[in-house]
Amino acid sequence: MQERRRAYRALVVEDDQPTLRLVKNVLEREGFSVEGVRDGQAAIRLLETVAYDLLIIDLMLPLVNGDQVVSFLEQHQPESVRRVIMTTASPRMINCDVLQRICRVLEKPFDIDRLILYARECMDDAA
Predict the structure, then answer these.
(1) Residue 57, class by beta-carbon neighbours within 10 Å (0-12 exposed, 13-18 middle, 19+ buried)?
(2) Which of 10, 19, 23, 36 could make an S-S bridge to 32, C-beta 3.0–4.6 Å?
(3) Which CA distances in Å does 48 have to 25, 30, 40, 69?
(4) Cα(22)–Cα(68) distance, rounded to whole angstroms?
């Protein structure tokens, strides 16, 4: 009999619709149950009631940026911060404090295989 494991939940926070759709599809193919939102404010509304196993957060977001979403996590779900992958075209713009606490930074444009590798690493590190 095959062991049935629960589907991990992922939240993708990305304002670029094609990128959001791509990341969502890739993670779903990897067995994640994925929700996606296009701004940091919507992400925080979800995070007020849901704990995710993996979070992929764009740094530059409308309304509330990625650093602010990570700050919210630190205050309300500190165990989740180690499962954050921050995406950005400008990695040098990431606050050094945030950089030390999150799992990974994925520079845009990114390779799908690297996204999968980082997602697996973050899940293994958090386990």
Answers:
(1) buried
(2) 10
(3) 25, 26, 12, 11
(4) 24
